[in-house]
UniProtKB/TrEMBL annotation:
<dbReference type="InterPro" id="IPR051122">
    <property type="entry name" value="SDR_DHRS6-like"/>
</dbReference>
<dbReference type="InterPro" id="IPR020904">
    <property type="entry name" value="Sc_DH/Rdtase_CS"/>
</dbReference>
<keyword id="KW-0560">Oxidoreductase</keyword>
<dbReference type="InterPro" id="IPR036291">
    <property type="entry name" value="NAD(P)-bd_dom_sf"/>
</dbReference>
<comment type="similarity">
    <text>Belongs to the short-chain dehydrogenases/reductases (SDR) family.</text>
</comment>
<protein>
    <submittedName>
        <fullName>Beta-Keto acyl carrier protein reductase</fullName>
    </submittedName>
</protein>
<dbReference type="Pfam" id="PF13561">
    <property type="entry name" value="adh_short_C2"/>
</dbReference>
<dbReference type="InterPro" id="IPR002347">
    <property type="entry name" value="SDR_fam"/>
</dbReference>
<dbReference type="GO" id="GO:0016491">
    <property type="term" value="F:oxidoreductase activity"/>
</dbReference>
Length: 235
């Protein structure tokens, strides 16, 4: 039985995805940077957590070495640093590129050949509404997420005929730790940024990921599913 692999599982969104996909019953390999905060006992006995900071090439390579027979891959690991470009330190730029781009590419590179060999595999990459609706202070972060969406469409085009599907879920303002980075923006202003006048919850993103992973939705490939309450349409 193949693995479900979820990166960024120690984030609120990543953990919600892990909880949602644990009902499938497959062995799970989770990656994150904070293990002690997670109720791992609530998942199946086949769930394993690996501590790894993807800004470290050695940690990334070690994690990749743990990937064996992957059925479902969800890339939810992300580095979000909100600063205007002239004030953004070089190490912050390097970290966002390492986590949001390099890790994504190298993990997909490792698991796609085995998926093609068995002619079956699902990849869901968590991007952001910022990929298409840019906000001040997020030029580098938004650029990495736009790359992720273009990269995902490339995978869908190249490997769809071999049974590998790749889609994106693009969250908007979700009630998670990432919103702490937007503390300078009033909550009511965040709520008014979408058509539903409220923030989403991590479980909303998890439900969208589960939808894309289901076999009955196997004809969905190369798309970006926005989970943003209508934020992307612009108000």
């Amino acid at each position: 039985m193949g693995q479900i692999v979820i990166t960024g599982a120690s984030s609120a969104i990543g953990w919600a995805i892990a909880e949602e996909l644990s009902t499938i019953g497959k062995p799970m390999l989770l990656q994150g940077t904070r293990k002690h905060e997670l109720p791992l006992n609530e998942l199946s006995a086949n769930a394993e957590f690996v501590m790894a900071d993807f800004s470290s090439p050695a940690a990334l390579e070690h994690f990749i070495s743990r990937l064996t027979d992957v059925d479902i891959l969800v890339n939810a690991a992300a580095c979000t640093i909100t600063e205007l470009l002239p004030q953004t330190r070089d190490e912050s730029i390097d970290k966002m590129i390492a986590v949001n781009i390099a890790a994504l590419v190298k993990i997909c590179k490792a698991i796609i050949p085995p998926m093609c060999a068995k002619r079956s595999g699902v990849i869901v990459n968590i991007t952001s509404v910022a990929a298409s609706k840019v906000y001040r202070g997020q030029s580098v972060y938004a650029g990495t997420k736009a790359f992720s969406e273009a990269f995902s469409k490339g995978i869908a085009a190249e490997y769809g005929r071999k049974g590998v599907r790749c889609n994106c879920v693009a969250p908007g303002c979700i009630n998670s730790g990432t919103l702490k980075l937007l503390a300078h923006i009033a909550k009511d202003k965040i709520n008014q940024s979408n058509a539903m006048a409220k923030m989403g919850e991590p479980r909303d993103v998890a439900a969208a990921v589960a939808f894309l992973c289901r076999e009955e939705n196997a004809f969905i490939n190369g798309t970006v599913l926005h989970v943003d309450g209508g934020q992307w349409i612009g108000l």
